[in-house]
Each structure stands twice: as structure tokens, then as C-alpha cells.
Specification:
Rossmann fold, globular, binds adenosine-5'-diphosphate, binds magnesium ion
């Protein structure tokens, strides 16, 4: 059985100007101990997929479909029960630690609370584990950092604190949502190495959400490409790098890392993703696709297997 099994997940938002289709019928699974990268441009729906299954979606969101964690349905679960999973089995690391850390509480208080609330640990037990976690993420002086407030730390150190929070009590799945986007390039690779070490030592399943394909290579075994709320291609790291079949994946691979990092966007792909309030009738990538033909304007390609591990949503996958 898959550890996480997502089936036909959709997320839409109701707004005065109409409805936004942020996630459109997405299905995928993650095995125990697996590392998956979710890659796509800003607005592709990457975060919304995982917010929905953690119950973190905005109030105007409508979530449909299923997401089972070790057989237990998460979609529609009451907040109190979802909180249990969020505290124990699943953790999320956000892009900007400043919005996820409480600026008024010392680091130590924020770390120990998690263990006291979710795992019923005593303060002493929680403190010992929190200090171990700070050591594991290689903060220079855990005892001292424990007493500090978030604003006293650098961006890279705050992201390490977020990772320390995520690993407390050894969750089975960590979702890292653009954990390095706000950081310098050198710090980025340190953070990825750290996540990799945690994965190797504890066998934690990981999802790395990013727009930066080169970053993924250090950590993930499998890549899932998202475009305009849909999965357009998925495959092993090797398949995606050596025989990507979706024109979008190919275009992203050609986008240089330097371009991506400097702008936070993929400047080398011409054009913009479609407006999620007015999606095209056919393939959502067709307006930007050099290979698009008439069929692409009128019908939507289904995600179809091209190998045991690779699936592509393109009418011309076999030719590419
Ligand atoms: N509360 C909301 N109301 C309306 N639209 C939203 C809301 N939150 C997110 N969206 C839209 O959902 C789409 C997907 O967003 P998101 O999952 O954050 O993209 P990504 O993480 O891939 O950058 C975007 O078009 C975004 O504008
Ligand atoms: Mg996002």
C-alpha cells in the first residue's frame, strides 16, 4: 500500500470575479521513504495540493477528491483530527520562515510546544529533543539559539529552525514548500544536503516543492511536473533528465538555473501561464507550445503511461 495516495484531487476558489481552478483532478502517490519533487512555475497549484491535504486551504477554497495517508482519508477530516496528523505524521516547511515562526516567542518555546502538545512530552523531555533537533540541523550553538527570538537569526538559520521543527518526533512525511527560494545559492545547497541527510538517517518520505529543477537532483528520486493545476509529466529523476517527453518539461530543463534563481521565475520560457479563471479548452500549455497542433487547441490530453514509471499528458508524447 502507498503511504500517501491522492486521487482526483481538485481545489477551486470562489471569488467575485469568478472561480479559480487551482488544482484540477490530480492523482499521485508516495511510497514509504520516497522522495518526490513537485516542479512548476509560480501559480501552477503546487502548494494548493498539499495545503488541501493538510487542511490548510483558504476559507474560499473548495476541495474535492481523496487523499489517504496510510489508508486514512484526510479530505473532509475535522480540524482537530487533521491537527493530530499535522503534529505527528506530516509536517510542512514553508518558503518564508518569518511567516511560519511566531515572532514573539523564543525558538525554544516554539519547538518544545510542539512536543508537549502533540506528543504529551514533559518540558524536560521536550527540551532535550528540541536541543537535539537544533544540533541535527547544524545550528552553531543550540543552547544559545534556544533562547533567541526568530528576528535574531539570519534567513538561513531561521530555515534551519523550521527544519528542526519539522523533524521533531520523527514525522513520516515532510513537505518542504520552496524551502530555499528566499535564500542565497550557497545556503540553498546546504539546506538541500540537510534534508537529504534527514531522509537518509530516518527514512522520512519527502516532498520538495520547487520551480528550480537543478535543485531537485540532490534530493529527489521522482519528479512530478505541474502546469495550470494539472500534472503534465511524472517520472524518475533519470527519465525526466534524459527523456522528458512533455514540451513543458523540456522547456524547463533548458531554462538556465541562473535565470531561474535570479528572477524566481522561468524567464527563458516565452509567454505566461494561463489565467486560472479562464483556462483554455484544450491543453493549457498549447498557447506557449512550439509543437501545438489543432488537436491541442480543442481537447485535453490525459496523463498516459509511456513506461512503468513515466507518465505524460501530451498528444504527441511518443514523438517527443
Ligand atoms: N485564497 C485564494 N483565492 C483565490 N485564488 C487563490 C487563493 N489561493 C491561491 N489561489 C490561486 O491558486 C493558484 C495556485 O496557487 P499555488 O498552489 O499557490 O501555486 P504554486 O504553489 O504552484 O505557486 C494560483 O493561481 C493562485 O492565485
Ligand atoms: Mg507555492
Amino acid at each position: 500500500m502507498n503511504f500517501l495516495d491522492v486521487r482526483h484531487l481538485s481545489v477551486s476558489f470562489t471569488q467575485e470575479q469568478g472561480s479559480v481552478q487551482a488544482v484540477r483532478d490530480v492523482s499521485f502517490s508516495i511510497d514509504e521513504g520516497e522522495t518526490l519533487a513537485v516542479v512548476g512555475e509560480s501559480g501552477a497549484g503546487k502548494s494548493q495540493v498539499f495545503h488541501a491535504l493538510l487542511g490548510l486551504q483558504a476559507k474560499n477554497a473548495r476541495v474535492a477528491g481523496s487523499a489517504k495517508l496510510a489508508g486514512q482519508e484526510l479530505i473532509g477530516l475535522p480540524a482537530t483530527q487533521l491537527n493530530q496528523y499535522r503534529g505527528n505524521a506530516l509536517r510542512i516547511i514553508f518558503q518564508d520562515p518569518m511567516t511560519a515562526l511566531n515572532p514573539y516567542l523564543k525558538i525554544g518555546v516554539q519547538l518544545t510546544e510542539i512536543l508537549q502538545v502533540h506528543q504529551g512530552a514533559s518540558y524536560q523531555q521536550a527540551r532535550t529533543q528540541a536541543l537535539q533537533a537544533l544540533q541535527e540541523v547544524k545550528l552553531p550553538n543550540p543552547e544559545w539559539n534556544f533562547q533567541q527570538y526568530p528576528h535574531e537569526l539570519s534567513g538561513g538559520m531561521r530555515q534551519r529552525v523550521m527544519i528542526a521543527m519539522a523533524i521533531l518526533g520523527h514525522p513520516r512525511l515532510i513537505i518542504a514548500d520552496e524551502p530555499t527560494t528566499a535564500l542565497d545559492v550557497t545556503v540553498q545547497s546546504d539546506i538541500i544536503s540537510l534534508l537529504k541527510k534527514i531522509h537518509q538517517q530516518h527514512g522520512t518520505s519527502m516532498v520538495l516543492i520547487t520551480h528550480d529543477i537543478p535543485l531537485v537532483a540532490g534530493l529527489c528520486e521522482r519528479i512530478m511536473m505541474m502546469y495550470a493545476g494539472k500534472i503534465v509529466e511524472t517520472g524518475t529523476l533519470q527519465e525526466i533528465h534524459q527523456q522528458a517527453r512533455h514540451p513543458y518539461t523540456r522547456a524547463l530543463l533548458q531554462a538556465t538555473p541562473a535565470n531561474q534563481r535570479n528572477s524566481g521565475k522561468l524567464v527563458s520560457i516565452a509567454g505566461q501561464p494561463p489565467d486560472p479563471r479562464q483556462l483554455p479548452t484544450g491543453c493549457a500549455f498549447a498557447p506557449r507550445c512550439e509543437k501545438a497542433r489543432r488537436q491541442c487547441q480543442t481537447a485535453q490530453p490525459e496523463l498516459t503511461a509511456v513506461s512503468d514509471t513515466q507518465q505524460v499528458a501530451c498528444f504527441f508524447a511518443e514523438e517527443n
